[in-house]
Each structure stands twice: as C-alpha cells, then as structure tokens.
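Worked example

This section walks through a single chain of length 252. The input is the sequence exactly as stored; nothing has been trimmed or padded.
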Amino acid sequence: MSEPLILIPARMASTRLPGKPLADIRGAPMIVHVWRRAVESKAGRVAVAAAEPEIADAVRKAGGEAVLTKPDHPSGSDRIFEAAMKLDPEGRHDIVVNLQGDLPTLNPALITAVLQPLATPLVDIATLATPIKVEAERTNPNVTKAIITFGHEHDGETGRALYFTRATAPWGEGPLFHHIGMYAYRRKALEHFVSLPPSPLEKRERLEQLRALEAGLRVDVHIVDTVPLGVDTPEDLERARALLDPKGKKKS
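Given that input, the structure is written out below as tokens.
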C-alpha cells in the first residue's frame, strides 16, 4: 500500500453545536486538535476537507493542510472524495481515511488500527469497533452495533462485517460490538461508494455504511479497546476541554 491520505471532513452547520469545528478548546479550534491527533499518528499525509473558508483558514494558520470543498455535500464520504480528487488527482494515495472532525481527544493509535484490515487484499473498506461494556448501550439505538464474523481460525482482532444495526444484535450469549465511525477506504472502493444512491437498508437504519454492504463491498472491522469522545453537544465540548491540557495533550 502507498502512504494513506488521512482526510478530516468539517462543516460549520451543526444542529446541536453550531460552528463546531471552530469551537475553542484550550486556545485552539477543535478542528486543529483533530488535525494534530492525526499528524501524531504518523500514519500518512493529513488534510482537512473544509466546507467553509474559515475552517480552512484556521487549519492553515496552525500549519496544517486544508482544501475547500463544496458546502452542500450530503455526507462526509462525499466531501473526502472531492478532497481526494483535488489533493491527489493522479491517484498516488491508494488508501483514503475518513476521520471525523469532532474527535479532539482521539488516541492517534486508532488511525493506525483502522488501516490494519487493508493488509488483506480482498478488503475494500476497514473500520473499528469495541466490545460493549456498559449494559445500557446494548439496547441504546444511538449506539450502532457491528455484527462481525471472525471465522474459525481467526485471532479475534479483525473480522468481517455482516451487518450494522441500531438494534440489539446478534441475539444470544456473547459480546456485542460498538461500531466506531472511522473508515479506511481503498481509493477505488471510495469512488464506487460515493457513486451509489442511498440504499434501502441505509435509509431504514440511517446508517451510511450499509450502502457498502448492500453493494457487495467487503468491510472488515478491527477490534480496539476504546471509544473516542465525539463532540456533539455543549456538554461534550466541556468534557473535551477537561480532558485536554493547555498544550492539547490528554491529561494523565
């Protein structure tokens, strides 16, 4: 594989937290913190796919790379595809990582982890999950469950996704897995994915990744031991501020 291209889609429109990418955390905009976490991973080239000029300006002021994209993309996947075509029209980067722009306290090791399933040539898309440990999350529809088969001879660290759902599944004894919405695409798989219309199960469950499964793309899931804090509300923002020190590092 070539060096991955790690893209962070960001837009100012947010129902619960307007202007989220530029929200101040310890003296820096949130999007800058996410960019820093990605750079710290040393996994590949990092750029922000910005919907508005003010986001791109903030990243560039901090020394980062940013590209302006159309403001009306329906999803982050569409935004990163436009950014990839602008930043790498020759296709030198054959892996594209979609890293959400609201993960300022992200452990950089998760970016390396999401790349691991792509060592298998037949895998089109890689993502992450973690075992559910809080009982209430098993029945919470806001916690997406990944239904994974690990095969008979697998080490249990990476498996193949059979489905994603908001329901409590699979039934019976055994672990349930909380899906983490970070993706690593083969370039051709990303191009194919964004060319497809929303699928029936995607619309029913309101889970974009089901479009890939319904189209026959292979999605493998690497198991990790933590769920990154996604900042969606003012309360989440205060938690992120409390978790980071003035230099933007996680407090010990």
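What to look for: The radius of gyration is 17 Å.
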